[in-house]
Structures are given as C-alpha cells and as structure tokens.
Amino acid sequence: MSNDERTFVMVKPDGVQRGLIGEITSRFEHRGLKLVGAKAIQLDRELAEEHYAEHEGKPFFEGLVDFITSAPVFAMVWEGKDATHQVRRMVGETDPAESPPGTIRGDYGLDLGRNLIHASDHEDPGSNEREIELFFDDDELLDYEQVTAEWQYE
Ligand code: IDP
C-alpha cells in the first residue's frame, strides 16, 4: 500500500461557522497525514450540484445544495497511507447521532443535516481523485517531503 494516497475533505458551512476548522484540521495533522492543498471557498450551485450529483432526485437534495452553498466551506486535500479509508473512519457515520464518540461527527454533531464535514468515499473507488479534480487545479496542489515521514512510516 502506497503512502501517497490523496483524499478530498471539506469542512461544511456549519463547521466553518462554528469555528471548527482548526479542531477538525488538527486531527488530520496529528494523525500524520500530509496537507497538500487547502482553500476557503464559497460554492456556487453548479459546483454543489456536480459534487452531490449522485443524490440528485432524492428528497434531501435541494436542501443539501441550499445548505452547502449558504456560507463558505474549507476544502482540503490530505495525503498518506490508506488516506481515504482512514479519513472516513475519523469522520464517522453519515448521521452524527450514529457516529461514535472519538469521530469528528460523533464529537461535534447531533443532526444528519448538519454533519460538519465531507470526505471522499473509500467504497466508491476513484471518488477521491474525481473530487480533488473538481475542487482543485493542479497548480493548487503541493508536492513536498514531510520531514517526519521516516518517524511515521516503517
Ligand atoms: P456522507 O457525507 O457520509 O458520504 P452521503 O450519503 O454521501 O453521506 O450523503 C451526502 C450528504 O447528504 C450527507 O453528508 C448529508 O449532509 C446529506 N444527507 C444524506 N442523507 C440525508 C438525509 O436522509 N437527510 C438529509 N440530509 C442527508
């Protein structure tokens, strides 16, 4: 398994408004993942609808697009061993009420429609790369050595 898998993560408007960007980001830093891209952006409906295209037609779709475009989000790309799967484990279940304490949604959320964070789905192969491409240009992503790598990987 390579140590350079990249995954897409986004603090949603509720996380940004509640001042949780730092709390959430520090979890990925402390885990040893490498930050290779980050930006605060305001999503427009076109990008939001494309990002959530798989949910089009579902009863919550319009509300989800309204919510995700209602205020800025903080988009990131994290890199590391098994990054997509490991980040999803740290995020928890889709519904914060079902997410165990210790996960981001389980520690900071209570309601399905305000679950703080998006992360690429490890059960949907290629979703990480598709989402990174949708949100970031190539020249917004960094390529650098993490000086702690030899203390994190055998
Ligand atoms: P995920 O964010 O855990 O990957 P998905 O099933 O891909 O979950 O759903 C995308 C987002 O849509 C969820 O994070 C949540 O914000 C919203 N969502 C999903 N299911 C419902 C629902 O039944 N009611 C309201 N919002 C929902």
UniProtKB/TrEMBL annotation:
GO terms for biological process: CTP biosynthetic process; GTP biosynthetic process; UTP biosynthetic process. It is found in: Cytoplasm. Transmembrane segments: none annotated. InterPro entries: NDK-like_dom (IPR034907), NDK-like_dom_sf (IPR036850), Nucleoside_diP_kinase (IPR001564). Residues 4-143 form the Nucleoside diphosphate kinase-like domain. Keywords: ATP-binding, Cytoplasm, Kinase, Magnesium, Metal-binding, Nucleotide metabolism, Nucleotide-binding, Phosphoprotein, Transferase. Its EC number is 2.7.4.6. One of its GO terms (molecular function) is metal ion binding. The keyword Cytoplasm applies. ATP binds at residues 12, 60, 88, 94, 105, 115. Major role in the synthesis of nucleoside triphosphates other than ATP. The ATP gamma phosphate is transferred to the NDP beta phosphate via a ping-pong mechanism, using a phosphorylated active-site intermediate. Belongs to the NDK family. This is Nucleoside diphosphate kinase. It comes from Halohasta litchfieldiae. The gene is ndk.
